[in-house]
């Protein structure tokens, strides 16, 4: 028999074995149960991410890089800071809990949630973080830090006399806690107070004093991990914050939602990492034009309104270049980017202004790692 025929016979034999094994698994319940149990044991035993908390590096994990424009590949705004034995989550948009849970980071070790502002796409995931971290074993209420009530923009009063726009972080947390009251009662009654601690239910709100331009307000400072708030410009949403994260000589800056802003540019100078929102105005203008052609002039007008209080990819690259930022990562991406061609259009013009440093389009599950006392930056995928 020739070598070619021998190889063909070997392949055919292996194929027969594979087909027979597949048929056995498909038809034999005991084999099915054994495979299911094996998968369960593997998944339940996956706690290998705990080591990220104490490995001497600053980790920034993107658990939501999308926007209110529907995008099945991205949850809304959420970033997890992991360092010094702590996890701090910044923003909790819709879908972000599912994305965070997929990273297999230890949810019960989340120390706090920090909010950049009170738009729904930054807070709608907060109930799930409150409930799921409690279920995971949190022993005290979840601390939530965010802006107070608007001072410059007047609340709106509707025809029924109801006031809209008069809430700060305290009122938001109170409202969510009330909405979850029945849920927490049911769960304690079902699982008992030894397994779900009643004293740990819910959240504790802390309103951040609004910093002046050029000023940082410390929000979190434990075991070498320091996170400070600074003012950005997302008017009529006010106050709105960005955050500066420091650990082991490394610095990461998160823009929150803002138009191109000199205060943010100042805070980002010399940073290792800048996570910056990005809205491509030309692309959103085309979306608005499409809505007009479809006869939906109301949504077209609202789409055009977004152009005035966000930053374009090119503008964010200008900030990173002028500030000599080592790595710029885009998040809060508008509009959705379904394929490589659209991503290329989204980033058009960025290279021309970026200067030194690297630029990446963020995605859910992206982890940026910066070892303490080093210049190194690495990227890995946690999902």
Description:
This protein is an alpha/beta fold and 383 residues long. 36% of the residues lie in helices and 26% in strands. Helix 9 runs antiparallel to helix 10. The longest helix is centred in the first third of the chain and has 25 residues, at 3-27. The protein is globular, with a radius of gyration of 24 Å.
The ordered string of helix (H) and strand (E) elements is HHEEEHEHHEEEHHEEEEEHEHHHEHHEEE
Q: What is the 3D form?
A: globular
Residues in β-strands, percent: 25-35%
Integer-rounded radius of gyration: 24 Å
Structural class: alpha/beta
Instruction: State the strand order across the main sheet.
Output: 8-5-4-3-2-1-16-17
Number-wise, the strands total: 17
The helix fraction, in percent, is: 25-40%
Mean pLDDT score: 93
- Major sheet size, sense and barrel closure: 8 strands, mixed
Number of helices: 13
Spatial gap, N to C terminus: 49 Å
Uncertain regions: pLDDT < 50 for 5+ in a row? Answer: none
């Amino acid at each position: 028999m020739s070598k070619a025929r021998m190889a063909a016979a070997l392949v055919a034999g292996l194929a027969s074995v594979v087909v027979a094994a597949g048929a056995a698994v498909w038809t034999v319940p005991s084999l099915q149960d054994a495979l299911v149990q094996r998968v369960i044991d593997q998944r339940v035993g996956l706690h290998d991410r705990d080591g990220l908390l104490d490995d001497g590096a600053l980790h920034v994990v993107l658990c939501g890089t999308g926007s209110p424009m529907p995008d099945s590949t991205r949850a809304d705004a959420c970033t997890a800071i992991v360092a010094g034995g702590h996890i701090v989550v910044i923003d909790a948009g819709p879908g972000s809990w599912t994305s965070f849970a997929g990273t297999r980071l230890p949810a019960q070790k989340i120390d706090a949630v920090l909010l950049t502002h009170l738009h729904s796409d930054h807070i709608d995931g907060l109930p799930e973080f409150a409930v799921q971290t409690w279920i995971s074993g949190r022993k005290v209420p979840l601390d939530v830090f965010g802006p107070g009530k608007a001072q410059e923009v007047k609340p709106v009063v509707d025809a029924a006399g109801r006031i809209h726009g008069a809430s700060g972080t305290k009122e938001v947390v109170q409202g969510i806690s009330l909405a979850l009251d029945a849920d927490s009662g049911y769960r304690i009654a079902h699982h008992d107070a030894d397994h779900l601690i009643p004293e740990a239910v819910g959240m504790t709100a802390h309103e951040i004093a609004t910093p002046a331009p050029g000023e940082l307000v410390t929000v979190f400072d434990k075991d070498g991990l320091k996170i400070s708030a600074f003012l950005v410009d997302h008017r009529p949403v006010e106050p709105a914050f960005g955050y500066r994260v420091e650990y082991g000589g490394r610095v990461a800056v998160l823009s929150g939602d803002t138009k191109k802003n000199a205060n943010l540019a100042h805070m980002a100078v010399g940073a290792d990492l800048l996570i910056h929102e990005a809205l491509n105005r030309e692309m959103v203008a085309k979306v608005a034009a499409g809505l007009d052609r479809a006869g939906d002039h109301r949504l077209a007008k609202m789409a055009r309104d977004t152009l005035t209080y966000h930053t374009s990819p090119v503008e964010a690259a200008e900030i990173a270049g002028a500030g000599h930022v080592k790595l710029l990562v885009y998040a809060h991406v508008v509009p959705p980017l379904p394929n490589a061609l659209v991503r290329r259009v989204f980033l058009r013009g960025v290279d021309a202004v970026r200067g030194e440093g690297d630029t990446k389009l963020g995605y859910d599950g992206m982890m940026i790692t910066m070892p303490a006392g080093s210049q190194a930056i690495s990227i890995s995928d946690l999902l």
